[in-house]
């Protein structure tokens, strides 16, 4: 029995920041779950910079999204039909990088994680702070930067989802934290609300290397890099000997089509005996429970602020995604498709509703 689904599909490979010229809304048919599959109605989409990489054909840790296919992403939704014994209608579950920007996702059960009934935190947190957004800074700060009391940690994209948590986790570990952000308003926010010790607006700075030196008078012991590019070059010139660079992301170059030069100060890695380590959260899968427990406890104790920015509506997704690259977001950016309080549809209701929408198109 065919059903219908609104999907945002990749029509062309973006040159620069993706726009609605590249990603189009389509109404497509949907099949009932086959054996082992679960049909979820998505409630939240996670806006992740990595998705930009999957839109291009460049080699990455995941295959490119094929043209004409819905944009791959991580979503949280409720089960509306299940062909797997572990998932019942009404369960809430999330899938990481296995679903798409769409109303309904048909997902193999083994790729979904069910959320316990009556969760103590808002539902969206399970797709954000308890997913790679929180797990990545947890392991990056504690295991890769090896944060310890008295260290100075510099963090780029420090008002973003990962960076805002990285700075706070480093503070909890006893570090002095300095964040690099793209506006004065973000500088005030990370210092006044998140407890960073210092902040630099890298966009208004004429000499970023000197600004970092001034904000970090004892040098930088670890640099949590979300950005790459010129910011990384300036950080390299401020690293202490035997410092650690946590290579978490390189958002400054995700929209570049040409070869990216540099880092020009690469030689400093040798001159200062630095360790540079790239990583992704799944490396630490065996310790996710530990990280989720710590993140939840720190939030409950008021030691960790988790900020979300939620945009409503599938039709606003492409514009929302572009905010990651203009710096218009603060904290974790999500798209909310519908509220959990909306009664879940039956399969027959879904079909009827979408058929009506099509007849009006
Ligand atoms: N390794 C992993 O497993 C892993 C997991 C999740 C995320 N990441 C990476 O972590 C980084 C942050 O991701 P997120 O989800 O937390 O996004 P985010 O920080 O919430 O949003 C992106 C922020 O990056 C800054 N930015 C954008 N373009 C920039 C540029 N050209 N130069 C400098 N800053 C720029 C903007 O803030 P400003 O206003 O400050 O410019 C923007 O708000 C990304 O590189 C992402 O790929 C890695």
Number of strands: 15
- Quaternary structure classification: single chain
Q: What percent of residues adopt helix (DSSP H or I)?
A: 25-40%
**Content of β-strand:** 25-35%
CATH architecture of the largest domain: Alpha-Beta Complex
Radius of gyration: 21 Å
CATH H-tier superfamily of the largest domain: Medium-chain alcohol dehydrogenases, catalytic domain
Poorly predicted sequence stretches spanning 5 or more consecutive residues: none
Q: What is the N-to-C order of secondary-structure elements (H for helix, E for strand)?
A: EEEHEEEEHEHEHEHEHEHEHEHEH
Characterization of this structure:
This protein is of the alpha/beta class and 361 residues long. It is 27% helix and 27% strand. It contains 10 helices and 15 strands. Strand 9, helix 4 and strand 10 form a beta-alpha-beta unit. The longest helix has 14 residues. The protein is globular, with a radius of gyration of 21 Å. The model has no long low-confidence stretch (mean pLDDT 94). It binds NADP nicotinamide-adenine-dinucleotide phosphate (NAP).
Essential attributes:
alpha/beta; single chain; globular; 15 strands; 27% helix; Quinone Oxidoreductase, Chain A, domain 1; binds NADP nicotinamide-adenine-dinucleotide phosphate; 2 domains; Rossmann fold; 6-stranded parallel beta sheet; 361 residues
Task: Offer a quick outline of the entry.
This protein has 361 residues and is α/β, with parallel strands linked by helices.
């Amino acid at each position: 029995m065919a059903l219908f689904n609104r999907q945002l599909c990749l029509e062309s490979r973006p040159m620069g920041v993706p726009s609605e010229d590249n990603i189009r809304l389509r109404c497509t048919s949907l099949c009932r779950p086959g054996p082992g599959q679960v049909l979820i109605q998505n409630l939240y989409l996670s806006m992740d910079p990595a998705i930009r990489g999957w839109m291009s054909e460049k080699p990455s840790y995941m295959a490119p999204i094929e043209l004409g296919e819905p944009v791959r992403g991580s979503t949280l939704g409720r089960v509306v039909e299940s062909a797997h014994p572990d998932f019942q209608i009404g369960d809430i579950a999330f899938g990481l990088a296995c679903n798409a920007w769409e109303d309904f996702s048909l997902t193999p059960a083994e790729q979904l994680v069910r959320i316990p009934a009556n969760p103590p935190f808002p539902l969206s947190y399970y797709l954000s702070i308890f997913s790679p957004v929180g797990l990545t800074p947890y392991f990056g700060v504690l295991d890769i930067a090896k944060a310890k009391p008295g260290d100075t940690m510099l963090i780029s994209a420090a008002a973003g989802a990962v960076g805002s948590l990285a700075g706070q986790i480093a503070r909890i570990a006893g570090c002095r934290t300095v964040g690099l952000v793209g506006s004065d308003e973000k500088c005030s926010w990370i210092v006044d609300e998140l407890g960073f010790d210092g902040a630099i607006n890298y966009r208004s700075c004429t000499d970023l290397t000197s600004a970092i030196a001034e904000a970090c008078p004892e040098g930088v012991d670890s640099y949590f890099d979300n950005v790459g590019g010129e910011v990384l070059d300036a950080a390299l010139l401020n690293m202490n000997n035997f410092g650690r660079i946590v290579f978490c992301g390189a958002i400054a170059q995700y929209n570049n089509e040409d070869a990216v030069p540099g880092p020009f100060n690469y030689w400093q890695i040798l001159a200062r005996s630095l360790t540079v380590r790239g990583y992704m959260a799944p490396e630490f899968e065996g310790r996710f429970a530990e990280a989720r427990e710590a993140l939840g406890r720190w939030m409950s104790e008021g030691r960790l602020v988790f900020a979300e920015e939620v945009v409503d509506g599938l039709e606003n997704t492409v514009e929302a995604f572009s905010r990651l690259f203009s710096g218009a977001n603060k904290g974790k950016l999500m798209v909310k498709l519908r509220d959990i309080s909306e009664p879940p549809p039956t399969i027959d209701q879904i079909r009827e509703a979408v058929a009506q929408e099509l007849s009006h198109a």
